Structure formats: C-alpha cells, structure tokens
C-alpha cells in the first residue's frame, strides 16, 4: 500500500506542476502558434493568403493588431494548456511509476532511456484525447478573422459559439475531429520531448544522483526538447490543422495528405515549421524551468 499511495501522491503533484508550467508556456507560445496555424490554413486554400511567415506576421499586425490578431482567444487555450501539460506530466510520471512497480523497483530508482521513451509515447497518446477538442476550437478561432477580411461589419464568433456549432452540426464526435493526426503527433512528439530533455539533463548530471540542474541547463534541455518535439512529426500537425480549420465535413486524414503532396509536394507538410521552431525554444524552456523550480521550491 505505501507504494500505491506514493504513486497517487506523485501523480497529484504532476497535475499541479504541469498546470502552472503549461499556462506559463502558453503565454509565450500563443502568438507564434497563431501564425503557424494561419500559414497551415492558408496553404489549404485555392489562393493562399500569405507568401511567407513574415508576410503572415505583417498582415496579421496590419489588419488586426497585436491583441486581436496575435493574442486572439488566449484565455481558453491557456486553460487548455494547463490541462494538456498537467496530463502530459501526470501520465509520464504515472507510466514510469507503474513500470518501476511492475519490475519490483523503488519509485526513486531510475529507468533506462528506452523505458522512458516508451513512457513518453504513452503520455502523448493519453494527452491527445484531451488535446484534440481544445486544439480544434483553438484552430478554428485563430483563423476566424481570415475568412472575412473583406467584410468590415464582420463580427467573429466566440469560442462558446464555435463549440456549440460544432456540437450541433457533428455531435460529440465532431469535437474530436483530427484526433488521429493529433494522436500520431503527440505519441512521437512527446516521446522525443521527454527523451531529449532526459538525455540533456543526464549529460549535465554526469552520473551524479539527485542532480539539480542549473537554470541555463534547464533552458538548454527545454530548448532541445521543444525542437525535437516539433521536428519529429510536424507533417502530422499540418494535416491536423487543415482538418480542424476546414469547414467541410468530408475531409479525411488521407485526403488531406494526398492534397498537400499533390499541390505543394513534400515541403507542403512543413508550412510554418520556421516560426514553430522559433517559438518552441523559449516556450519549452520556460515550461521546464517553471516545472523544475516549482517542484524544487515545494520540495516534491
């Protein structure tokens, strides 16, 4: 029983720490994410709205300003990020503890890198079920203004309105549109995210047990984690964004894949990769710094 209580206690700690670190990361990430989603949506149109990342940034600022353009709808995604990251850390820690218990190890023992990679993949799959409806509504909200730029009297829909319309037209299943692409991205991405982070911290620790990384080491590890996450399965993210921003209900995963390859080639799957990698460095760094320092401060 003590082990069970420890597993439960560890899991609750991860939910708290993940919630705070996720919200901190989202504040930094959101404007970059808005541009990424808009670029991905733009390339799905017969006539793309933007010629490059800088063109998307310039037009967003010129047409909508900072608050209405780059930070449009931040509040709900920030709450969603808290749920997402807390689930990510919670399931990652839980998977590790269960593996240790199944092998008769103490919860303080270290797992092999290969075992941690599997735990990371598991956490990504778990998180995808929470993340899909959050990202679906977020993506639709981020491109809402683009659909009516020529109409000066246009009033964009609110997040509750978008959610109600989705539920009304497609039912509860409609809120999980693009789930396959999200799950593929999260499975491989989370495995790399945690894997890169653990590898870099292990390198800095140089074999020292209970090593407490310095801030600059957490920044490096977090940056490597973020870059690895987005580089691994970015094409799946592109497919997901197009599926979730498209208003029609007849698109499928494979239809989007074929459309992108036929119209844009292999590079079409990497639309927005530049701004995504640029955002991933500070975002992931801040998330891990927040997580580790809060954990150290609370002495979990």
From TrEMBL:
Q: Where in the cell is it found?
A: Mitochondrion membrane
InterPro entries, sorted? MCP_dom_sf (IPR023395), MCP_transmembrane (IPR018108), Mitochondrial_Carrier (IPR050567)
How does the UniProt record describe the way this protein sits in the membrane?
A: Multi-pass membrane protein
Q: Name one GO cellular component term.
A: mitochondrial membrane
Tell me the domain of life. Answer: Eukaryota
Give me the Solcar repeat coordinates as residue ranges: 9-98, 111-203, 213-297
Instruction: Give me any GO biological process, just one.
Output: mitochondrial L-ornithine transmembrane transport
SUPFAM superfamilies to which the protein is assigned, alphabetical = Mitochondrial carrier
Q: What is this protein called?
A: Mitochondrial ornithine carrier protein
Q: Which organism is it from?
A: Pichia membranifaciens NRRL Y-2026
